[in-house]
Amino acid sequence: MFPAIDNTRVLRMLALMAARGKSVAFARIRAEVVRLVALIPEGRFTTYGSIAVHMNVIARHVATVLSRLTPEESATLPWHRVVAANARISPNMPAESSRKQRRLLKAEGLRIDKEGYIQDADAHFHNMGVRRNIRWSEEP
């Protein structure tokens, strides 16, 4: 359903952001969020916080990256598989995006109640892994 993310495109984006004087650290964080979201299997979900802990950043960084996806990235990246704490569709998201996220998650077999909570969440949760000791402001 979603094609693989092209690493060449990610590297070009990093170079472009650096050339424009943008934060290289945030560009690296953005590229890693995109990479990790692309790895979430169909029918599974994770949280902003789970990705953030794995990356050693705050959940707001993850949410910011996903809220600023380009139309092309939104069409190719399974952003809908990332939800807020407690396995809930974010109440802070625009209503149109929330409805789209609900529809896409349901199409993958997840059940969601009226308040936006994913039912039987433990059976569908995708663990991103342990915290990594990364300093985003340093060169890799």
Name some characteristics of this structure:
single chain; globular; two-stranded parallel sheet; 140 residues
Structure in words:
- With 140 residues, the protein is mainly alpha-helical.
- Helices cover 49% and strands 3% of the residues.
- The chain contains 7 helices and 2 strands.
- The chain has helices at residues 7-19, 24-38, 48-55, 59-67, 71-76, 95-107, 121-124, and strands spanning 46-47, 82-83.
- A two-stranded parallel sheet has the order 1-2.
- Helix 1 (7-19) runs antiparallel to helix 2, helix 2 (24-38) crosses helix 4 and helix 3 (48-55) packs across helix 4 (59-67).
- The longest helix has 15 residues, at 24-38.
- The N and C termini lie far apart (32 Å).
- The mean pLDDT is 87.
